[in-house]
Amino acid sequence: MQAINGLVVGILALALVACGGGGGSSSAPPPAPPVADGGDSGGDTAGGTEEEDACGVAAQIDFVEAVTDSWYLWYDEMTNVEKSGYASAQAYLDARLKPLLDDGRDRGFSYMTTITEDETSISSGAYVGFGFRTSSTATQIFIIDVFESGPAWAAGVRRGMELVAVDTGSGFETLDELSAREATSEEIFGPGEVGAVRNFRFVQNDAEVEISIAKDELAPPALAGEPLLIERAGLTPVGYLHLRQFINAALTPEDGFSSLADATTLFKEANVTDLIIDLRYNGGGLLSVADTMMDLLAGLTATGEPSFKIQVNDQHPDFNDDTDNWGLFDERPETFSPIRVAFITSGSTASASELVINGLDPHVEVVMVGENSFGKQVGQGRWDMHDGVEGLERADCDVALRLTAFEIVNGENQGGYHQVGLEGTGRFTLCAAEDDIFNPFGDPQETLVATALDWLGTGACPTSASAGTPSAMANQRSALPPWLAAEYIPERVDGNLR
C-alpha cells in the first residue's frame, strides 16, 4: 500500500512516516498551495531579517489559509475571518475552524506544531514523565497502566494502585487538600522535565506505600506485557494481545519487548482461532502500523482486497479514486487467520484502533467488549511550511500544520462512526462491561477479558457482564476537580499520562 507521508490517524499527535503493508514506497504529502514571501496578513515585521519575515506570523497565517482552503475536510464550512486580526497562526486557525470545533467534529485534531516535535513524539510516543496512566473519579485517582520501560514501573507502581497523597515539596497533602487549595496538575505531578521528583503515597490491598519517582524521557512499549495464550479445556487456546499505541515500536520494539509479528507468530504456532485484542486505552497512531496489523490478521483471508480507503474533500477527486491511497490486505510471513476477534474497547479507543476494527469487520467475525469507541473516522495530513516557500529551509522555519484532511472507510466503503463511535453505526455488537483496574491485563478474571472469553465460548454477550466485580471507574465522572483531566483527547496531549 502506497500511503501519503504525513497522513495519520492517532493519539498524542501521531504522524504517518512510512508506507503501509503493501510494500510500496512512501510519497510526499499533498503539496500546499504556494505561500507568498513575507505574507500579507499584517503584523509587525520591522527590523526582522528576510528569513524571519518568510517564517513570521504573517507568513504562517498565509500558509494556514492556503492549506485549509484547499485541503481541510470540511473546507466549505469554515468561517471567513480577517487575517490581520490574529496574533498567531494557531489563533487564526481556531477562528477559521470555529463551527467545526463548536459542533465537535474537529475535537482538537487540527493544530500548529513543529516538524521536530511531530517527528519525535508521533512515531515513538516518547514523552517526559513517570510512566503511568491514571483514571479519575470525582474524589479518587487510580493507576490504570504502568509502562514497563519507565521509572514508575522500576519503582514498583502497578495497575490498580490508588493515589491518595502527594508531597510536592512541603510534606504530603491528600487529594482533598490539594483540591481545596486548587493545586494545578503541574504542582501535583511536577514540570515536564527530566529529573523532576515527586513523592507519592499509594494504597493497594488496604496497605499504604510511599514511593519517590523522578521523571525521565521514555517511550512506552507498544504492547503491554507479552502476548498470551489463555488455555481452555478441549479447545485451542485463546490469544490475547494488548496494544497501547500504533507506534513504530509495535513493529520494531526495543530489546526485551514484543512486536505485533511476535504475537501473531505465537498465535499461529498455537493454532489460535479465537483472539482477544485489547485496545481499551489505545487512541490511535500510525496508519502504517494499522495497515500492517490488518495484514497480520486477515492477509490470508482477504488477500488483495482493500482494507481501508483514504478519502479527501471533493476538490481532489483524483486523489479519492487513486488506489495508491488505499490499503490492501497482504500476506506476511507471520500472518495467521483468526476466525473470531473480540476487541476490548472504551471511550478512549479511537482513530487507528477504530480503523482496524472497521477494516476487519467484513472479513472476520468481530465483537466489541467494554464501552463504545471514541468515534474518530477522520485523520490528519501534515504540511511543512518551508516546503511551500521557495528558498526557505527547514532550519529557518521549523513550522508545521496538522490538519484534519481526510476520512477513512473500509474496503466496502463503510464508515459513519465519526462522533458516534463504532457501536453508533448499528453494524457492531457491543458486550457492555466495565474496566476492572484491580486485575492485570490478560488475566481471565479481569472483567473485560472474562466478558470476551464468555462471548467466545457462547457466541452471545453475558446478560450482566460486570456483575459482582468491583469497579471504582463506575463512580461519578461529572464533578471532577479542575486539575483532573475529564476527557481523553486523541492526537493531542493525553491528560491521563503522567
What does this structure look like?
By secondary structure, the chain is of the alpha+beta class. Among the domains are: 127-218, PDZ domain (Pdz3 Domain); 228-376 and 408-471, 2-enoyl-CoA Hydratase, Chain A, domain 1 (Alpha-Beta Complex), CATH 3.90.226.10. The protein has helices at 50-54, 57-71, 89-96, 98-102, 115-124, 151-155, 175-180, 185-189, 260-269, 287-298, 317-321, 352-360, 447-458; strands at residues 111-113, 127-129, 132-136, 141-146, 162-167, 172-174, 197-204, 207-214, 216-218, 228-232, 235-242, 274-278, 306-311, 326-328, 340-345, 365-370, 378-384, 400-410, 430-432. Strands 3, 4, 5, 6, 7 and 8 form a six-stranded antiparallel beta sheet that branches. A six-stranded mixed beta sheet has the order 10-11-12-15-16-19, sandwiched between helices. Strands 1, 13, 14, 17 and 18 form a five-stranded antiparallel beta sheet that branches. The longest helix is centred in the N-terminal third of the chain and has 15 residues, at 57-71. The chain is globular.
